[in-house]
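Why do we care about 3D structure at all? Because function follows from shape, and shape follows, mostly, from sequence. That is the central idea of this module. The next example makes it concrete: a single protein chain, its amino acid sequence, and then its structure expressed as tokens.
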Amino acid sequence: MKLSIIVPVYNEAGNIKKLIEKIRKEVKIPHQLIIVYDFDEDNTVSVVKKLGKKYKNIRLIKNKKGSCRGVVNAIKTGFDFVKNGAVVVTMADLADNPKTINTMYRKLQQGYDLICGSRYSRGGKKIGGAFIKSFLSKLSGLLTPMLLGIPTKDITNAFKMYKKEVLNSINIESEGGFEISMEIAIKAHAKGFKITEVPTVWKDRTAGESRFKLLAWMPRYIYWYVWGMKKRLC
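And the structure:
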């Protein structure tokens, strides 16, 4: 099954070369690497163009969704670019562990449709990050199997792998940010797709600026959590 790795970027010149080299070294499955940017002045673009001459599996594409700005539209653009196979979303800030992609892919081969990278399952770990953000994501994960019936302790983590057929079957409504991955997982579960998790180690960024907006995005996380509980009860 063809593997596509989507990386949304916003001024990640300080991280992107390290990420690309790390993925090439640690991901053992043949893949295409899709870098999605918002605007031509993004300092990531020139770095990726240079690396694209060296590595032929790199695809640099411009965000063409919605307002053409923001991580959620960049991810949607990447989803549209991929026609089939397996799709994984990872961040350019080096927080996600590329080695986990190999484990995710094996789970896909075993018959699962959506695999969640879990910082809170046995073998997983979260290093750094704001306390309140960590507390809320861990609490959400602990409640997810009970309240939503989804077998993951880390529903909010954007580091997930999907079969393209899962994405094709879902009308993605998210317009804010990383809640998009939570929406997809909840809707995929409601449609009967097979979901599992694998442990992963997450490390807070050391270069660049985080784009995570807790206060702005929190209502959207709550919305999809409540949507999932209602759907389960109906």
